[in-house]
Amino acid sequence: MAEPLTGALVSAAWLAEHLSDGDIRILDCTWHHPSTNLDGRNQYRGRHLPGSVHFDIDHIADPNSDLPHMLPNEADFAKKVGLLGIGDGDRVIVYDRLFGGSAAARVWWMFRVFGYDNVAMLDGGFNQWVAAKHPAEMSPVRPEPKTFTAKFRPELVCSFDQMKSVVANGGEQIVDARGPGKFDGSQADVFPFKKLGHMPGAVNVPWADLVDAQTGVLLDAQALRARFETAGVDLGKPIVTTCASGMTSCMGALALYLLGRADVAVYDGSWAEWERAEQAAAAAA
Question: Of 44, 77, 152, 241, which has the most beta carbons under 10 Å away?
Fold first, then answer.
């Protein structure tokens, strides 16, 4: 049996070497907001890594929530992941076309939330794969369903009530992964938020500052540490990450994982949920 994955990242060279391993399962997690006129599933159909299947974060999500791609329950995640051909013991590799910022990091986090650590993200994503002249294909992949066991880890998820407590009482540092304009409210979001800005006490560590601008590869540990410390984050104290819809915040969680912080929670509802609650409170006042 192959050794389990031991880190949050694999390189294109490593994956090319292990592509034919029988327990490797690759997920193309590319996602785009509808306003971009891009579609992750269509991009997958156009070209994808050999053997990969598409993971749709809007499909493997809570069907009863009108917030963007909220976590599904344990049983739903296990069923849908099993239908993608992933079973217990498989080594799962996730990638997308925006260096983790368009959903691969969220899928990495989702697997960990549901008790599965044998998962890693392709460093630099699809672009790094093709830049290294590794093969891509158009052939459809129809995996055989497998049995996947999910076990929810609540400590890796921050709920709305928990975030209210964090804002009111402190105790955890809030790291917002959005760009600076969206963080300070000077730039509109792709989501139709009525209120812009950020949660009280939050600090800004944009997810795009955690990767090399040319290759999309995550920065080395020293540079990552400097990004967080420059923003005022104490890496020895509790941290929760947030963003617009609980996606790029997972890049923050992944970067912190690389710095030894495997306990960082992600606020699943993020600003989409927070600003809605603020609007409702203001209307009721």
Answer: 241
